[in-house]
Specification:
5 strands; globular; alpha/beta; about 190 residues; disordered N terminus
Amino acid sequence: MMRRSEMDRRRIVISGCSSGGKSTLLAELATRGFRTVEEPGRNIVREALETGSDALPWKNPVAFVEKAVIQARSSLEAHAPHDGPVFFDRSAIDALAHLDRLSIQIPQALRSAGQTCIYARPVFMAPPWPDLYEQDEERPLPFEDAVREYNWLCLAYPSRGHRLIHLPKASTPARADFMLRSLGLPLRAS
């Protein structure tokens, strides 16, 4: 049986710029047999738009982050029994960094909840890539705002003890190969 610290190293985050290809990369990893967890933010935004809730990052950032951290903790707990790697599209760190970036005081209970979400030290960052960037109802921010968010995340992760590995601007299969080789993993789950 793996110790908790060994399991935590197998919880790998893909973060970075909005519309930088993270979800597409996650789908590629899933087709190769790896476990993946979708970004909580998109689901929260979709639900808020459907129900009329104000838990939107641009309307009520604290409510949005609370939901994102709860979902992040739940995803980690759900995959705790799995000994192999699990790839996450964003993390609780992304959510908390959103409030930091807006200079909003993070409630202590929320900060504590976020700190219980432990991930692998290396974090893969999808860089800003104008050719991929798309705005939609769930992602209304302009590219320039997405770049600012990316730059903030490049500070937030290292300040929490993580090491950034920047993904190449390459095809999705090439990005997946790059990630898996960087982690010393096979190109397909066994």
